[in-house]
Specification:
Number of domains: 2
Strand content: 15-25%
CATH class of the largest domain: Alpha Beta
CATH superfamily of the largest domain: Glycogen Phosphorylase B
Largest sheet: 9 strands, mixed
Distance between the termini: 16 Å
Bound molecules: adenosine-5'-diphosphate, alpha-D-glucopyranose
Number of helices: 18
Strand order of the largest sheet: 3-4-5-2-1-6-7-11-12
Shape: globular
Structural class: alpha/beta
Length: about 475
């Protein structure tokens, strides 16, 4: 196998900075790809948290005028990750959230902040770092979207480019007046360029100009070519269907391993499922729920947003009472949904518990202690929490969309008869069908042998990065060969 070098470009990376699954993917893929003979270096912005974590790293590249201030690329190794950090205080020295200011709104200069990331990624791709020339530059989501565009407009040899869409709902729209400021040529403002409904879309820049496009599940790759799910990009994605593919996400099975997880109350495995009871008790204690031996416990670990169908779940809470079930939720997001769950929890003490916020330890205990994990998303490019749930014996109850459709096998009569079911799916995605799914789940829960089989089937599923990493490696190799 010829070794291959990939520069990965993204705006977040676990464990340094995370707002969602993107960070998990960026943090886990390099290790999995190393086993496939692919060496990944990852370029991320130097937010304060990132600079703190890498300490005194050495500068390997400087740019005295990077969109209005100096920028340096720092090289660091951390937790086995080969990092390139773009230190540009005028762009990234800001507190807390990578995208939002204290008012909860996008930073007004986000276009420039992430154009800088893409510009430096392109420069590195073209050989700006001494002794380093990646074969492929892999850009993730709108924040890195300009990278393939900058490389496209470069005259002369360039590396291959891959654009991965983790979520089409974030187009990275910026005013058309910024075209020159972003360093794009006038001709790029066109339907077959970066123009998007009268604005510039940084995501479209990547989708238009990358050599290959991937998204994070085969079903989502198909869905986004339809007007219904294409969020304005369907035509472009249909036109580029020959270079578009879906590669499922995995999870880091070292971090998510119920047999050795230090963040749960009692480790367990497929043959020691009875030990989950201690985790269920600990989860209930954390969430202020009564220790009712008969009650099935539903868990949620989620951004609280329209995408995630959390408003539908709010509408379905009455059925949980009818079913004698409990709900434990950890999540943060839209203010009205947060308020909705707070109110419901206050009105149903001991039965509904919610922690509004981001809590890594609670997310692990949730997977270990909940009987079922709810993911009622309206759309879901892949989803990671249902993969964690499978691994932890929390039966996933999911909307039949995107990656959820691809990773959970519905407990219908045929799947139960053949013994392959791993969870519950519902479609179409509506509060009514979620209600039906909740009832169906509790009926399955009341049949201990069937339930046990759902759990053990799920725990046997391969949710690791092994298979996906192999597919990315093949994609990179195919691209390099095609361009040779
Ligand atoms: P998305 O990226 O759309 O939010 P994913 O399922 O792909 O959804 O990834 C979400 C990631 O964030 C998972 O690792 C999940 O465990 C984690 N997560 C989401 N919300 C919380 C929370 N409130 N506390 C802790 N972890 C969370
Ligand atoms: C996005 C998607 C989610 C996916 C994650 C990582 O945040 O919403 O479905 O799992 O990216 O690819």
């Amino acid at each position: 196998m010829t070794p291959l070098g990939v520069l990965s470009v993204a705006s977040e990376m676990f464990p340094l900075i995370k707002t969602g699954g993107l960070a998990d993917v960026i943090g886990a893929l390099p290790g999995a790809l190393a086993r496939e003979g692919v060496t990944v270096r990852t370029l991320i912005p130097g937010y304060p948290q990132v600079l703190d974590a890498i300490g005194g790293a050495r500068a390997v590249h400087t740019n005295p005028d990077l969109f209005g201030g100096p920028g340096r690329v720092l090289a660091a190794q951390i937790e086995g990750l080969d990092l390139l950090v773009l230190d540009a205080p005028h762009l990234y020295e800001r507190p807390v959230n990578p995208y939002l200011g204290p008012d909860g709104k996008d930073w007004p200069d986000n276009a420039v902040r992430f154009a800088a990331l893409a510009r430096v990624a392109a420069d590195i791709g073209l050989g700006a770092l001494e002794g380093y020339r990646p074969d492929v530059v892999h850009a993730h989501d709108w924040q890195a979207g300009l990278t393939p565009a900058y490389l496209h407009y470069h005259e002369g040899a360039r590396p291959g480019t891959v654009m991965t869409v983790h979520n089409l709902a974030f187009p990275g729209k910026v005013p058309r007046e910024l075209l020159a400021r972003l360093g794009l040529p006038p001709r790029s403002y066109a339907v077959d360029g970066v123009e998007f409904h009268g604005t510039i879309s940084l995501l479209k820049a990547g989708l238009q100009f990358a050599d290959r496009i991937t998204t994070v599940s085969p079903s989502y790759a198909a869905e986004i070519r339809t007007e219904e799910a294409g969020m304005g990009f369907a035509g472009l994605l249909r036109a580029r269907a020959d270079v578009l593919s879906g590669i499922l996400n995995g999870i880091d099975t070292g971090i998510w391993d119920p047999a050795v997880d230090k963040l749960i109350a009692e480790p367990f495995g497929r043959t020691t499922l009875a030990k989950r009871a201690a985790n269920k008790a600990a989860l209930r204690a954390w969430m202020g729920l009564t220790q009712d031996p008969a009650a099935p416990l539903f868990g949620v670990v989620s951004r609280l947003s329209w995408q995630k169908g959390m408003d539908m779940l709010l509408a379905c809470l009455p059925v949980l009472r009818v079913l004698g079930a409990q709900l434990a939720l950890v999540g943060a997001g839209e203010a009205d949904i947060e308020a909705g769950f707070r109110t419901e929890a206050a009105q149903a003490p001991g039965r509904i518990g919610c922690v509004i916020g981001y809590n890594e330890a609670l997310a692990h205990l949730m997977q270990a202690g909940a009987d079922a994990l709810l993911v009622p998303s309206r759309f879901e490019p892949c989803g990671l929490t249902q993969l964690c749930a499978l691994r932890y014996g929390a039966v996933p109850v999911v909307a039949r969309v995107g990656g959820l459709a691809d990773t959970v096998i519905d407990a219908n009569a045929a799947a139960l008869a053949t013994g392959v079911a791993t969870g519950v799916q519902f479609a179409p995605v509506s509060a009514e069908m979620l209600d039906v799914a909740l009832r169906r789940t509790v009926a399955l829960y009341r049949e201990p042998t069937v339930w046990r089989q759902l759990q053990t089937n799920g725990m046997a599923a391969d949710v690791s990065w092994r298979g996906p990493a192999r597919q990315y490696a093949a994609l990179y190799r195919g691209l390099v060969e095609a361009r040779a």
